[in-house]
Design brief:
Length: 396
């Protein structure tokens, strides 16, 4: 028997160093359940929905059937970090917009209520949210305030009798066009005061306009929220949210989670590129046999391997309580940058076909731009890490 005939058949598996083998049985089971769901429900229709800027509505009912949030938000304050991370990764592998939908609802909105809400608020909202009977959103970013939210929120809140009045706008708020509740963050009247509110979208003073014309994550329903004289009862103010440091507790978890979205997006692009290289023929043979094509694939695989290692380690640190802001910032900065590089290599490998949705890389190439920008830009996360390692703040 020839050496060629006994060679192990090549695999699409991007987990070159076997990181998934270090997951617990429960974590891996969760990962595979979500992968099956995304392949069955989202993958066949995502290109059409992406073109139409439409959310894949069946995803909501299908993810509810897995009952993931029911256990986590019943017995624990939130999903175990690695289990939540691999959900984001598997969703982003097929559609980063689906990962954003999940993260906003299950991470940012539910996390705000779990960490900062009253007993009554938790009892009212968490059961319905964990069963996906209601959908949540999270409103922090504003039209003129992105990276400067810590010091420059323009949404204002003031006490008025037995309630509060909110005035201002929020922009880029995922899920806001169809959510039942939006966590709105606003600057208070006292110096340094930042308060969180559960704004019910049935409130007559809640107005939202869908943001269209995006080139990235077009399946995410992003909205521009306008609140003018919006009255909110005291019972809907998050009592444990009083300064921006309380917002930071929630964002610290979310930032590490976005690093997993970057991993998933890069994996999806790599898999599309490798499958394409094996089947696309030029000069009488598959392009996978050409040196420069193999170089691109190896660079992509190296990026993914490094991203997986960093993302998994920072999430384990979150589990054992040793994760700090700079750890999350480095994970997000590195993984988002390497994701951007990886999807560009995938698109480039396909030549002219790389700009067609049908080959998979083009959509992920575009969606990576959103991952690169949200949950702290590359520059902001760089400066957070820079401050930690030098002891000098370079923020202006």
């Amino acid at each position: 028997m020839s050496k060629e005939s006994t060679r192990r058949p090549p695999s699409l598996d991007p987990d070159f160093y076997g990181y998934f083998g270090t997951l617990t049985p429960e974590e891996n089971e969760t990962r595979l359940k979500v992968r099956e769901l995304m392949e069955r429900v989202v993958a066949p229709v995502v290109n059409d929905h992406w073109q139409r800027e439409a959310f894949v509505q069946p995803l909501r009912a299908e993810i509810a059937k897995l009952n993931l949030l029911d256990r986590w938000y019943r017995d624990e304050p939130g999903p175990p970090p690695v289990a939540r991370a691999v959900i984001s990764m598997e969703m982003a592998r097929v559609d980063p917009g689906s990962a954003s939908f999940f993260g906003v609802h299950a991470g940012l909105c539910m996390g705000s209520i779990a960490l900062c809400g009253s007993v009554a608020q938790k009892e009212e909202w968490l059961p319905a949210l964990r069963r996906w009977e209601r959908v949540g959103a999270f409103g922090l970013t504003e039209p003129e305030v992105g990276s400067g939210t810590a010091g420059g929120l323009t949404m204002r809140c003031r006490r008025d009798g037995d309630g509060w009045v909110l005035d201002g706008q929020k922009k880029w708020i995922g899920n806001s066009t169809f959510a039942d509740v939006v966590v709105i963050w606003a600057r208070g009247e006292q110096p340094g005061a930042v308060h969180g509110f559960l704004v019910r979208t049935e409130n007559p003073d809640y107005r939202v306009e869908k943001i269209t014309g995006k080139i990235a994550q077009r399946t995410v329903q992003s909205g521009l929220i306008t609140l003018e004289g919006c009255r909110v009862p005291e019972s809907d103010r998050l009592p444990e949210a009083n300064t921006f440091s309380d917002v930071g507790r929630i964002l610290r978890v979310g930032r590490a989670g976005v690093s997993w979205q970057a991993v998933g997006c890069a994996i999806g692009a790599y898999e599309h590129a490798l499958a394409y290289a094996r089947t696309r023929e030029q000069f009488g043979r598959p392009i996978a046999g050409f040196q420069l094509i193999q170089q691109k694939l190896v660079l992509m695989l190296g990026n993914i391997t490094a991203m997986l290692g960093l993302a998994l380690r920072v999430t384990r640190m979150q589990e054992d309580g040793t994760q700090r802001d700079e750890h999350s910032a480095l994970a997000k900065q590195f993984c988002a940058a390497k994701c951007r590089e990886t999807v560009a290599l995938a698109r480039d490998l396909m030549g002219g076909n790389g700009i067609l949705l049908e080959h998979g890389a083009a959509r992920l190439f575009a969606d990576a731009e959103a991952i690169y920008s949200y949950e702290g830009t590359n520059e902001m996360n760089t400066l957070i890490v820079g401050r930690a390692i030098t002891g000098h703040s370079a923020f202006v």
